[in-house]
Glycosyltransferase, GT2 family (Muricoccus roseus), 681 residues
Amino acid sequence: MSRRPVLLSTEPVHAQARNGWAQITLDLTGEESSAILFVTLHDGAGHSLSGNLYLHEAAKSGGAGGMRQKLVCFIPGAATELRLHAVGHAASALGKPRLTMRRLTRALASAKLLLKAPRGTLSGLLRHASLRPGLLRRQIRQMLATTAYEARIPRQDYATWITLFDQWDGETFPSSAAQPSIAYLVLARDPSSEALAATLRSLATQRGGVAHKVIDPASDRVFAEAMEGLDTDYVGILSAGEVLPSHATLLAADQLHRLGEPEVAIADDDEISPGGERHSPHFKPMPNHALMLSGTLARGLWLVRRSTFLRHAVAGAESAEELRTLVWLARYEDKPDPFSQRIPFVLSHRRPDTETASLEGLSRVVEQHLAKGGPAIAPEPNWPVTFNLRDRRAEERITVVIPSTLRQPHSLSCVRAVLEGTDHPGLDLHVVVMQPSELDAKQRGAAEELRRYPNAHVTWLEAARFNFSAANNHVAARTSSDHILLLNDDVSPIRADWLRWMAAFLRDPRVGVVGARLLYPDGRVQHGGVIMGLAGLCDHAHRYLPGSDPGYMHRAVLAQQLSAVTAACMLVRRSLYEQVGGLDESYPSAFNDVDFALRIGETGHSIVYVPQAELHHHELQTYGSHYAGDRQPFQEEEIRRMRQRWSKVCAADPFHNPNLGLTNGFEWRLAFPPRVGAEYG
């Protein structure tokens, strides 16, 4: 098995092909059917400008063993290099290709995509037909990009992924005295169950052999006593019914060593049918407090340093899931330094008869933790764990900053909806109009209407051109509230308690920024957090997902830590706003929020997405595209700066598993190949 793609070719992208649609034709030799081919586009600094652009449906090109592949794709203006990769069993046997590139008009590219994916293209055009022209063009470009991806996507089912990227042999893991030792603690309520027998059989197959103990969590024994005789560096916690592949212990030990031996490491897992078919992989983000409260990270193999386990594994857990959650939350309470990591490999398979935590038991563990501090929320015994607001009072003073032109009727109605549809009493709202001249008659009329509200203010800020960052910084410097809410003028509340939910999470002193869940007026998701690296740089997660769909691993509807959230609705602690110097005014319209959130993250504070705070976002209804008109020349430079400053998190967002994709609309599908594990190739 090799996770490392073979680089077949590197080709320059000519200037005339950039910033437009093109057809790339490849002629190559070899057995393509057992390899996956994909193209990546890069700028002059080597940064990737796209996800993997897959090729398939090869046609014979005449020569013996010859194949021809064609790809229709958009070439960004910054692209200077095209790289062709292959991964799979036959990747290294493919010959060097001959490549040609032909510029296409948008109409011709659309026609070619329509022939390849007629249903997707037509439904996309019809879905966006009612939008205003500027927004329609943007949505059609997005739809064409998605259609282009769908038209060439290879077979990407989990069975194929396992065949290509999850086959291991003993030679893969060089033995080393530096690697930590591991023993297993298996929690089982029924000592005669087939679930426990299956777990023990899997432990017996571990290469090199492992020690283990079985404990009934309902007994009076303390977990520390169960560790007597298991004198190893790490404790692997398992539930009866969770089975390990034979390579799990060797791969876990190697990963623990590579990760610097963290106190806790959480591995990916999947489910296995009675017939032995693996399915439903759970590719997890970096462990984080907000998501840990839901219980969704508590399944699968956990590895806990022995000293940490003995200190925090107190009595009271009645299942492996409760024990894992209890240990992690207790360690989180102990001290704030980072202590846990993710192992992005499938190290356990969950049988249908696996013993699980009771909803009441898991909720009780979370309740006991929250009683000591943190977000002002109270758990409900559901799967995943859900929450209510613990404290119905809202005492924080919050300055709401809304940059606006106050010329669009829609913006006025949205601002009024915020004032009238928000039940947080500490709201102090400031609308900022940023333009060279004073307010005109229409703007003055809108301002007078807003000033009828006792907590609303309208300010004219004289400036040559609009700058979202400067507008927010201006108000922040002249107010003194506890928190600052950055809000677009095309956002309106869906539920009145949206701001109290956001403020409830800022009660946790380790949280610095809170973002909301934003929906299009038709109920689909517009913003479910930001994923770094998505679409080559960053983009919204869950975009266009139906609002009733919980998403992959329920992540569209669960509070969780992320790398960034949008400033269309972003609540930030004032002290941190001032500490990092506010928004960067050299990003006047785009990327200022992502850059700001990432800088807050560098202070050690969490960026949390809170889906209970739900609002409508009438996207681009007021200002239009970030790079319309005289802003267009700045696009490539600002993208370049973002890639340069945040290259590390763009390459590996800790809250997006490297086994998941980075293409718009497909970010929760499998990555072909994964962005981790090449060291084992």
Summary: The chain has a mean pLDDT of 89. The domain at 6-162 is CATH 2.60.120 (Jelly Rolls).
